Amino acid sequence: MGEFDVIARYFRRAQDQGGVVSLAGGDDCAVLQPTPGQQWLVSTDMLVEGRHFLTTVPPEALGHKALAVNLSDLAACGATPRAFFLSLALPRVEESWLAGFARGLFALADAHGIRLAGGDTTAGPLNICITVMGEAPAGQALLRSGARVGDDVWVSGVLGDARLALELWRGRVQLSGEDFEHVRRAMEWPQPRVALGQALRGVATAALDVSDGLAGDLGHLLARSGVGACLEWAALPRSEILARQAQDLQHECLLAGGDDYELVFTAAPQARSSVEAIARALGLPVHRIGRIEAQPGLRLVDAQGQTQAVRVQSFDHFA
Fold this sequence. Notes:
The chain has helices at 3-11, 59-76, 95-111, 161-169, 177-188, 194-199, 214-225, 240-243, 247-256, 272-282, and strands at residues 21-23, 31-32, 38-48, 80-90, 115-123, 127-137, 152-156, 206-210, 228-232, 262-267, 286-293, 297-301, 307-309. By secondary structure, the protein is an alpha+beta fold. The protein has two domains: 3-137, CATH 3.30.1330.10; 152-309, Phosphoribosyl-aminoimidazole Synthetase, Chain A, domain 2, CATH 3.90.650.10. A seven-stranded mixed β-sheet has the order 8-10-7-11-9-12-13. Helix 4 (161-169) crosses helix 5 and helix 4 (161-169) packs across helix 9 (247-256).
């Protein structure tokens, strides 16, 4: 099967034409039609075999995650997903793998109403690169630079289970049965908080997604906003599985673990009832975990009530 056969069989869909995507794959460029009064928001993420995922990951889960991590960036900015581009390097053509990958990819795409507009395929080590495009009303996108002294710090969902799965693969912890499946699903099937991001427009003052660890990612927001923050250890949301682990492992998973793809955001104290109402409407737990302060840096009030500086850095591919 050749390159264009792969595209036609697994990645070309009749419903990819129309609406924002006036013309998808088949020409030298896709043709997109912006919605009047909206701004484009664009993000790109790459997943490389052996670096971002294990060879044992099922292709359907990989298709889901490849798009999910990109949708999470749109969610962090409060954007509505519109179109995406897929560049895929394959070591060989395996039809069963392609079918599973496409199934996971398009199931999530359909759930969020985003269309494949084009891309590229080539031979090479397995590498998946997706570029997503979304829209938000002009001037209403959530950014990292809007946090203000006195704002609450919030995070959605729970943190640390994906990192716990990584430590499971490394042999540092042992889990079985439902616990094993839970943390594996957290790592392989993250859920982008697109609806939450959209609902937070006009409510949150700043936001980003937790992809490389809470402490490091929040540090980016603090730096862009020119502020600091203090978090409460007891308020950091964790699963019962993680809560049963040793304290030092919990610390690593909650503050330095990656692949959570939850949203961390700030909002004025007066907005607490609005944030809680949004969470109830979406059926998604959110947790108030700290407060924005004038003093630069990130601090943590530990289980003994002592305040400590947090020096955990986010994941760095070249560190």
